[in-house]
Write a structure and sequence with these properties.
Blueprint (H helix, E strand, L loop, with lengths): L14 E11 L3 E6 L2 E15 L2 E5 L4 E6 L5 E10 L5 E11 L19 E9 L12 E9 L2 E9 L1
Antiparallel strand pairs: 1-3, 1-10, 2-3, 3-4, 3-5, 4-6, 5-6, 6-7, 7-8, 8-9, 9-10
């Protein structure tokens, strides 16, 4: 392992809780094997987003395009919009990985989660209008999630 260099790495990023997303999703539409990978498309039906004390409603019409690897790991890119009323509309893109805990995960630093559940992490990119939500354009955000039935829950953290 390479030791941190004070000259090039002055501090370790901190994760600051920024909100939560609850996404209602349809059953997957299986697309079959495309370009050597099993693909599926999941329609986004609605839900809610809470960031910085503001609550918005996820608009129907977004999608989650997934690639299912041979080992069962899912690489995903979800794109959808939320309406925050007077604060405007927000575009959300979440790119990430989801996989169930597998044999051998305990020996890998990136394996599983502290509670032994599935690994479901992502990087979020927001496109926000001027005004109260504009600050979302200027930071990096990561998510930790879980899927329960037809709902995906994402805890959002700002990388500071």
């Amino acid at each position: 392992m390479i030791a941190p260099n004070e000259a090039t790495s002055p501090f370790v990023p901190v994760l600051k809780p920024a909100g939560r997303i609850e996404v209602k999703v349809a059953p997957p539409m299986m697309l079959g094997e495309l370009a050597g990978t099993e693909r599926r498309l999941i329609s986004i039906l609605g839900g809610s987003v809470e960031v910085a004390g503001r609550v918005g409603q996820i608009l129907p019409g977004g999608s989650d395009l997934q690639e299912v690897r041979a080992d069962g790991t899912i690489s995903l890119t979800a794109r959808y919009a939320a309406d925050f009323g007077d604060a405007g509309k927000l575009l959300i893109e979440n790119t990430g990985l989801r996989r169930e805990k597998r044999a051998g995960d305990d020996s890998r630093p990136e394996g599983g989660t502290p509670d032994g559940g599935p690994y479901f992490r992502g990087v979020l990119h927001f496109s926000a209008p001027p005004g109260a939500l504009h600050w979302l354009n200027d930071s990096i955000f990561v998510s930790s999630g879980v899927r329960e039935g037809g709902t995906v829950y994402l805890d959002i953290h700002q990388v500071c």
